[in-house]
């Protein structure tokens, strides 16, 4: 999972039918030390994350694994709001 | 999901049988602020997107999750036409 | 899906049993304007593509979605031979 | 699978329900010779790995393949604690 | 699929239960012309590949598609030992 910070929201009225009602947030991926890496992208949130929260994001097709009956066409899901990170070895 | 803008169309008469009738668009991926990133690619559209639209794209195998009976061999699907993006924290 | 051009063939007598009889081609990925990007790789072809053809390739696990009874261990499939590409907005 | 070293822990009280009880570790990916590459990320551990261990990590949706009844929304799993690596050809 | 050369072995006594008995090799990915690209990684081998062999590797979740009853948590599988590569167009 990737570490990141929620930096915004996306609204899209017209979308695939199965995705109505989902919340879409913009996440800036980061290293464990908080440095930004790569490009910001859109992730689905079902656990109440908001702007400024440090989160863990599952990317790729397993992000759709919460829908037990039918998988949805999404590729990023916020799976946790991070309380703390403990780096024991000097990060390279 | 990746943010991007539809910049063109692709036509392919000869293709895998399961893909007949699908619409293929070219998407230029972008940061939330509209800067182009990475390489343009082909995505399937089922929601009526057209050239110039800012869209959200699901990439990878979950892009095929709309076909309930049998998954198709595609790896990118336009899942929403973006109305607006709200960046609350300065984008890095 | 990625745009690319077929540039060669690969032969492998010894392979996973399920893959006997498949045709393996080498594809050079490209931007819509034909510039080469990234590294050439091997894709399965079932639609009669050949050297010099401009093709669309599905990458990742959904490339195995043509096998309805049992998915094969492949990660790239040529899904269409491109007739034409129309870029409406200046490509970035 | 990617080779890496466990460098820390992540705690997240608020998370997707299915993920309660899982252990999340931070892994720094490496080349076989131990040089760090790419960005550190979070992986699930079920085999007792700890800080300083050299591990093999499966990334992407197959990392969820341990859950036979229902796949979880995770994208990285520590699948082995490495005893030794033997490079026979000079590593490039 | 990616082309590469087997350059070594990895041993891990402690691993996910489902993976006992599998052989893990280190593969250096290459262009069709043999130039090394990207980072070496670990792949499962079931077809008898060994150090020095030029191979095709399936990466990502479809690498687990050989296990018909239950998918394993692996993300790279050697699917063929390459006999020859024929590049018809000058490789870019």
TrEMBL record, chains A, B, C, D, E:
Tree of life domain: Bacteria
A Pfam match: EutN_CcmL
Keyword Metal-binding attached: no
InterPro entries the record matches: EutN_CcmL (IPR004992), EutN_CcmL_sf (IPR036677)
Compartment(s): Carboxysome
Record's keyword annotation contains 4Fe-4S: no
One cellular component (GO) term of this entry: carboxysome
Keywords assigned by UniProt, alphabetized: Bacterial microcompartment, Carboxysome
Listed PANTHER family: ETHANOLAMINE UTILIZATION PROTEIN, ETHANOLAMINE UTILIZATION PROTEIN EUTN
Protein name in UniProt: Ethanolamine utilization protein EutN
Organism: Pueribacillus theae
């Amino acid at each position: 999972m990737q570490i990141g910070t929620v930096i915004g929201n996306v609204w899209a009225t017209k979308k695939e039918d199965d995705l109505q009602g989902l919340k879409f947030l913009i996440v800036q991926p980061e290293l464990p030390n908080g440095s930004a890496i790569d490009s910001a992208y859109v992730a689905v949130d079902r656990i109440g994350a908001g702007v400024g929260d440090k989160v863990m994001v599952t990317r790729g097709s397993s992000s759709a694994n919460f829908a037990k009956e039918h998988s949805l066409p999404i590729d990023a899901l916020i799976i946790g709001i991070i309380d703390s990170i403990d780096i024991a070895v000097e990060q390279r």
